[in-house]
Amino acid sequence: MKQLSVLPLLLAFTGLFAALPARAACEIQLSDPRIDYGEMTRGELLGRPGNALTAVELRMDEPRESEITVICDRPTPLKLMFSGPAKDADSYLFGEQGRATLTLHDVTLDDRPVTIERAGTEAAAMAFSAGQPLQFRKEGQIASGSTLRAKVTIVTWLAADATRVSERKQWQLNGSFIVSDEG
Description:
Mean pLDDT: 82
Number of helices: 2
Distance between the termini: 42 Å
CATH class of the domain at 60-162: Mainly Beta
Order of helices and strands: HEHEEEEEEEEEEEEEE
Largest sheet: 9 strands, antiparallel
CATH architecture of the domain at 60-162: Sandwich
Structural class: mainly beta
Radius of gyration: 21 Å
Helix content: 10-25%
Strand content: over 45%
Shape: elongated
């Protein structure tokens, strides 16, 4: 008797999904999916501009930049987010104690410049924030397109105490970019 009641429920869900409009199929490409800072000593970190012996955290190196391209099979309003372990509201976990910020800028949609919007704030450049997608606007309206191109600037910091090590140590940022066509 239970099997008979499950079948109509599955058919109802199938009918619901068939009634929804088709979503755009999108692909994300990164120019540099891996950014390697190479090996460095604590002394080399302390010698970088802006880092000091008394600092609570040390910046790894100059900001790194990667290009991101989103290609969809049809024009659609896009939302883009970075999904990874959050350190705080404005940064992601880099290693166990470090942090990384990822800032999106120089965004074009179908080769036209657009602004970035998140939670009512609009700007030409905006940092990714955990759980909050970025969407794109042109002349105050949500913009639709099939090809989004932008740059992502990555800045990483390590807790100063974490740089006091006696052996080789690796730090990494794990996450992924997610695109949605839910405008």
